[in-house]
Amino acid sequence: MEKTLVVMAAGMGSRFGGLKQIEPVGPNGEFIIDYSVYDAKRAGFEKVVFVIKKEMEEIFKETIGRRLENKIKVAYAFQEIEDIPSKKYLAEKRTKPWGTVQAVLCTKDYVDGDFVVINADDFYGYDAYLQASKFLDEEKNDHVYASITFPYIKTASLFGSVKRAVCFVHDGMISELVESKITTKDGYALAEPLSGEEAFSISLDQEVSMNVFAFKHTFYQYLEEAFREYFLHDDEYILANEALLPDVIEKNIKNGNIVLRNVTTSSSWFGVTYKEDLEGLKKSIGELIKKGEYPNKLWE
Questions:
Q1: What topology does CATH give the domain 4-149+207-290?
Q2: How much is the pLDDT for 12?
Q3: CA angle 158, 7, 153 (to 5 degrees)
Q4: Strand 122-123 versus strand 270-271 pairing type
């Protein structure tokens, strides 16, 4: 069975006005995705599946896909608004895909073993992939998964609040993930749950999920169930919300169906929540290149 990297990229470009407008972050035109695939490959992953919109296929292959196809096995899964289990009429009223549950679920036909899920526009660092790969190699229980977590402060932006899933950990296991808007304060951070529940304080080193999850293939059964159940809600709720991975994971943790290990990484996370973050990201990658952690030309 191949270890597969699943890259959620269907929403890529929306923040900057489209895929063409996303600026390279490496010195030779590399995107964050290039570094993600590079790190995953050297950590033992043999295949990458990109989740994209069908209308992005041509430009995605031209700008990213083709330079990877002779380096690693590449497949494309399409996240489409019309691809829903029921209430098909709602697709006409929807302007964006249905969330990260749908994004991962649409890769099922392209993944035949264990896999790791990441965001396309986050730089996670080599150790994050190494820890995920090690977990998948060593964990024999098909219903034990892992979240590769970062201290919140490593994922904060200098330019405003961010959305993260706060992880509550006990004896190395995550018991709860709370999707929150988090704002850095003086010596702590304030987490405001997206569910509307009461805000709470967290330490700056509180573990947060950045959507790096290591799954066994069994996880697809929980995704299918969750996506069907999502469309049992009333139409107003469905159109106003998304089906999110942390919600599915947390529900099945509480039901006793799965266990989610907390796997910490020494990597530094870099990302672009705000356009102002971009220059800092480029600088950070440049520093890693100077340290010899990455070659100047990634795919030579």
A1: Spore Coat Polysaccharide Biosynthesis Protein SpsA; Chain A (3.90.550)
A2: 59
A3: 25
A4: antiparallel
- Sites in the chain below the pLDDT cut of 70: 12-22
Structure-block tokens of residue 179: 């999707």
Each as own residue / partner, the long-range contacts of residues 14-20 (CB below 8 Å, 24 or more positions apart, any chain) are: 14/96, 15/121, 15/272, 15/275, 16/275, 19/56, 19/59, 19/60, 19/63, 20/59, 20/63
Per-residue confidence (pLDDT) for residue 65, from 0 to 100: 86
Q: What digits encode the pLDDT tens for the residues 154-167?
A: 999 888 899 999 99
Distance, in Å, from the CA atom of 55 to the CA atom of 67, rounded to the nearest integer, reads 20
- Are 253 and 260 contacting, i.e. CB atoms less than 8 angstroms apart? yes
State pTM to two decimals: 0.92
